[in-house]
């Protein structure tokens, strides 16, 4: 009874406080940073578990629409997932707006030095400039409606960019080790459940959960590959940060093994190569800065190679891809007639993407508007399969400049201050770096990119937090 009374009095106090507020600025000032942090954590936990929620929805659809074709069921699942993204993303974007208003009010009250403020928040300001440029690009595009909503396949218009900004902001507000670990552990456990079902590859289960061989609940193997490369490096984070807890360490090592096995089985070479590079960089960094973790990291790296070799004995995927890579490079260097098919057709997409970028260098063709331009050149694709070229051709060279400069500023801080970091922060930044490497061969997608922006938000804020402690 006492608990209910305390809760009631708390509600009354909050009501009285809200009645006394006179402006939106007063309201944002009333909301504490801890409030934003709790809401952000709930949003991010909901998103990282979304693949499991989608699997459950798939099984419900199987029972409800038994006569529905696999394609139509895939469309229904896609709609459910995108609506879920919008609901979470727009709540997250509201937090983004409140944070900006709150920070502006703090500036007025405390009279901060604007030059110092800009210097400290260069990464965030550059990313906001990129979002603003995306809005302008949408407004001046030839198909503004498509630029806002995106295509029915990718849903990657301005509407979705707004959710990315929200997810980045939520990630930015997660600045305790326990909260970061909670998000990453649930992300890894969710991805491991999906990976386990992929490895089982039982037709009955595949039909119930609308699984495609090697791509799970994603549209194709490349999309699943983007997700997997972040999941694998995230599992490394958990293995290393549970060094003293043997039970958890072994649990996450098992998750790592399963995720690597599925990554190799996935047959998407770009994400596989990105993961290999990410693990190699992490091994080198740990050797020079965290010798206590080198033994564990060496085991992790060796396991990756062994799993790759064992699975390759059955599929020959890696040998074929490596030989193909060398052949593609040779064709490009010699300007062979077959060079346009290099990189599984990516070379011609890259060349044309750069051409489109130069055609509209300021604002680009607009978000998700490249499909018709590729069609004019008789290419049945809507993306260059390189996120950097995609940004430049879709949003304009200035947007790419803001994005690359923001990333450069962030990773410059990381490399200059690495001696002050712990293994958690290094591993967190390597999740971001691994995805970025895979993005040279990939596309943004509404169900994979949010993970990247969550990790980027956490990496940026926590990197700054550590550096500020040593200033």
Oligomer status: single chain
Main β-sheet description: none
Q: Count all strands and give the number.
A: 0
- The helicity comes to over 70%
Low-confidence stretches: none
Number of helices: 22
Ends: how far apart? 50 Å
Number of domains: 1
What is the general shape?
globular
- How large is the radius of gyration? 23 Å
Helix-and-strand structural type? mainly alpha
In short:
It is found in: Membrane. This protein has 22 helices and no strands.
Structure description:
- This protein has helices spanning 2-20, 24-30, 33-48, 50-64, 70-110, 114-120, 122-140, 144-149, 158-172, 177-200, 203-208, 221-241, 246-266, 269-289, 294-315, 317-333, 346-359, 370-376, 387-395, 397-416, 423-438, 449-469.
- With 471 residues, the chain is mainly alpha-helical.
- The chain has one domain (28-469).
- α7 runs antiparallel to α9.
- The protein is globular.
């Amino acid at each position: 009874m006492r608990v209910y009374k305390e809760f009631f009095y708390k509600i009354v106090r909050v009501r009285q406080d809200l009645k006394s507020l006179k402006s939106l600025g007063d309201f944002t000032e009333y909301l504490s940073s801890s409030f934003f942090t709790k809401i952000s954590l709930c949003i991010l936990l909901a998103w990282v578990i979304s693949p499991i929620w989608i699997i459950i929805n798939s099984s419900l659809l199987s029972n409800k629409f038994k006569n529905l074709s696999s394609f139509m069921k895939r469309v229904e699942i896609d709609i459910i997932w995108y609506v879920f993204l919008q609901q979470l993303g727009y709540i997250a974007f509201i937090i983004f707006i409140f944070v900006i208003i709150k920070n502006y009010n703090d500036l007025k009250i405390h009279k901060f030095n604007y030059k110092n403020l800009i210097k400290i928040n260069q990464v965030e300001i550059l990313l906001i400039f990129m979002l603003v440029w995306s809005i302008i690009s949408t407004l001046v595009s030839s198909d503004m409606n498509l630029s806002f909503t995106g295509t029915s396949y990718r849903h990657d218009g301005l509407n979705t960019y707004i959710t990315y900004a929200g997810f980045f902001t939520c990630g930015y507000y997660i600045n305790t080790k326990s909260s970061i670990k909670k998000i990453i552990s649930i992300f890894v456990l969710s991805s491991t459940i999906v990976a386990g079902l992929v490895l089982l590859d039982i037709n009955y289960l595949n039909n119930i959960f609308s699984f495609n061989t090697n791509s799970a609940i994603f549209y194709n193997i490349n999309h699943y590959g983007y997700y997997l490369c972040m999941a694998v490096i995230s599992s490394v984070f958990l293995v290393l940060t549970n060094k003293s807890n043997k039970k958890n360490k072994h649990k996450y090592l098992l998750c790592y093994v399963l995720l690597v096995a599925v990554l190799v089985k996935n047959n998407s070479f770009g994400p596989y190569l990105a993961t290999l590079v990410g693990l190699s960089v992490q091994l080198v960094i740990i050797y020079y800065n965290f010798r206590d973790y080198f033994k564990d990291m060496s085991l992790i790296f060796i396991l990756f190679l062994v799993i790759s070799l064992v699975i390759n004995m059955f599929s020959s995927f890696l040998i074929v891809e490596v030989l193909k890579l060398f052949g593609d490079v040779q064709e490009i260097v010699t300007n062979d007639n077959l060079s346009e098919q290099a990189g599984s057709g990516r070379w011609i997409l890259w060349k044309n993407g750069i051409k489109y970028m130069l055609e509209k260098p300021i604002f680009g063709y607009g978000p998700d508007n490249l499909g018709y331009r590729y069609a004019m050149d008789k290419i049945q694709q809507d993306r260059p399969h390189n996120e950097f070229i995609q940004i430049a051709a879709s949003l304009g060279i200035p947007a790419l400049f803001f994005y690359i400069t923001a990333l450069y500023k962030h990773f410059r801080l990381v490399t200059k201050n690495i001696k002050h970091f712990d293994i958690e922060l290094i591993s967190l930044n390597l999740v971001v770096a691994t995805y970025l490497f895979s993005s040279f061969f990939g596309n943004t997608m509404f169900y994979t990119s949010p993970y990247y922006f969550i990790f980027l938000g956490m990496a940026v804020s926590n990197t700054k937090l550590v550096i500020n402690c040593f200033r």
